[in-house]
Give the backbone structure.
Amino acid sequence: MKETDNDENLPAVNNTREVGDTDKNSKFFSFPNSPASNTMFNVVSHAGNLETFANRLEQNSHSSQLDFFTPPEGTKELSQRVKYTTDNTETVIHLDNVDFFTKANKPLKKILTYTLINLSRKNISENLIQDISIKFPLTDFVELGSYKTLRSARQAFNEAKGPLTSIKIEGVVRDKKDMKQITDTGIEVLFTGAHVKNGIAEIFLNRRINWELFALQYFSIIPKTYFSLSDNAADILLNTFMLARKRLNDIDKKQSFNISFKTLQQILDLPDENQTKNPGRDIREPILNALNEVTKAENGDLVITPVYNVNANIIEFLEEGYANIQLHNEYLEYFESLAHTKRTKIEATQKMRAEIAEKAKVKALSKKIEQDESSKKGKKKE
């Protein structure tokens, strides 16, 4: 079952239109869902097990590939450089200290997610004249249910800010025939600094990054419940809505789409089915428990139904099982709107191509008639 799609026909969403309608009264936030930012998030999320993630990605996807570079001499055990290639993008992520990311991965993922959410609210020009920053109160994490106290939220942020400010990136995005650079000059750190002052977290953006190209081309949504969920459930919820952005055809027709259990195994970094002695405990239960937790938290807005043979062995469970994702209410309205935009765009493109083809036929016919007339005149002269 393929979980990725070509971004060519996805409707771009202007971030300024989404700002403001996704905060106080909404159940979700706007979340950047651009190829380069997704690449960065995936590499950071799987920093502790990148090679396994890369192998599974290649099996589950028809258009994505991870390649590993040899780390600089003397840093073999700590540094990792990865090139992530899709149909339209080529992105290089450099993590100077993989162990650094692995240890801080739990708080880092939710803090990085909230940083990207706040990034989507920024009107960032292509070339920043001066450094700018993202600010948000740490009490947000308490209100959203990530942490019980401001003190624990501060501790988590301080734990995550080191790896957060160590993520380096370079890459290109192919837009039709154009190739645009994400960074001005080679590999660059994404965030140049981060600190907390008077309960306000501040993260500084590198002005040599093309932020619009990196993250602000496409958007999806992320339910606010994400921040209160366990790590496995949160990972599934985030990836569900990242995939929904690519499943607009299914959502438009059926108001639902499927995610294979093999893909969920990849998302959750679960053990290989051939290398664990207890696959029920280590693979089956984490998947089913996380799906159940998400459905309960979403309370009817998102319903996930596991579909599998209860008597199947772990191979059949992963190969044939899948999660059916049903969207309702605000979520369905959001993606149906995107699906309509996509459908309109495709229809307009098809109409334009048909008109061009018709004009080409008329032109070719006219040219043939002229050639025939010229040939007849030539014969009469003879």
Q: What stands out?
A: Confidence is low (pLDDT under 50) at residues 1-22. The radius of gyration is 24 Å. The CA atoms of residues 172 and 178 lie 10 Å apart. The first helix runs from residue 15 to 18.
